[in-house]
Amino acid sequence: MVTSGVKLLSGTSSRYLAESIAANYGMALGDVTINRFSDGEIQPVINESVRGEYVFIIQSTFQPHDNWMELLMLIDAAKRASAQYITVVMPYFGYARQDRKDRPRVSIAAKLVANLLVASGADRIMTMDLHADQIQGFFDIPLDNLFGSAIFAPYIKSLGLEDIIVAASDVGSTKRARFYAQNLNCDMVICDKYRKRHNEVSEMQVIGNVEGKNVIMVDDIIDTGNTLCKASNLMMEKGAKSVRAFCTHPVLSGKAYDTVLNSSLTELVVTDTIPLTSKNEKIKVLTVAKLFATAIRNTHENKSINSLFIKNN
What are the distances in angstroms from CA 159 to CA 153, 155, 164, 267? Predict the structure, then answer.
């Protein structure tokens, strides 16, 4: 039985998406103001009562770092205003790639920000396509990890392509690629890469045969685009008919837009967990607003969300 109302709040970075989620939910966003002192210091203010309410704070945590501070301070403000239950809706979970100690004397940033979210007062986390599933174990509160496949799989089927094969952009994407291959009833290949430093691929090879195939590459994040575009070029050289990439989070830093435009990719399909900063004729955006609105409603009404979404496992 639902005992309190819902308030949907948003910070600055995801206002565009939060408005769409609220529209799909059937209510207006709560009134929030983000004040700034002359030195740039942030002061979020919730301009309406949230006492005893179920509060959902919608904010992706891509750069700049102010997005993280806005989110943490909004959580703290809601907690101090006596919200009954605070769910943080993070369509994109920043710092998720730093999920382990892969060299001496480095931070496990994903665990650090998990601690900060809990310490600030979050009761639940809702996100999409975590970079690594084990990040869920960094939290001692519930975490719902939605899947981009619920958006991408129907779109892929709508293309009506024949001779499809799914490609994992690297070994780490094998589990995700295997799911898509099972869902699309096709085979899969793997792009094996070697890096000497971050964001720079030194060597790459395709494990499997892509000749005469329409390749579907899947990944959770596209950052510089170097890996995906190098992989697409390599697969076209191996005789592929076409290569399309499906990536949930369009970080697209540096020269990524030019890299994608000049690559052999037929299409790059992303979601709106992060807003695009430039137009690109090869990039298509699918919205996650309805998906999150449904998940928010089911969470508030204590209904299962497990049955709503196509999973990666």
Answer: 10, 7, 11, 12
Residue 1 DSSP one-character state = -
Cβ-Cβ contacts under 8 Å for 103 (sequence gap 6 or more) = none
* pLDDT tens readout for residues 90-131: 999 999 999 999 889 999 999 999 999 999 999 999 999 999
Catalytic residue among 193, 213, 230, 241: 193
Give the three-class secondary structure for 203. Answer: strand
**Residue range of the domain that includes 271:** 149-286
Is the model's pLDDT at 2 over the cut of 50? Answer: no
CATH number assigned to the domain comprising residue 257: 3.40.50.2020
167 domain-assigned: yes
Are the beta carbons of 244 and 267 closer than 8 angstroms? yes
User: Global pTM?
Assistant: 0.92
Hey, which bits of 238-298 come out as E strands? 242-250, 267-271, 283-286
Residue 193 lies in a domain: yes
**Is-catalytic flag, 193?**
yes
The verdict on residue 198 lying in a domain is yes
- How many domains are there within the chain? 2
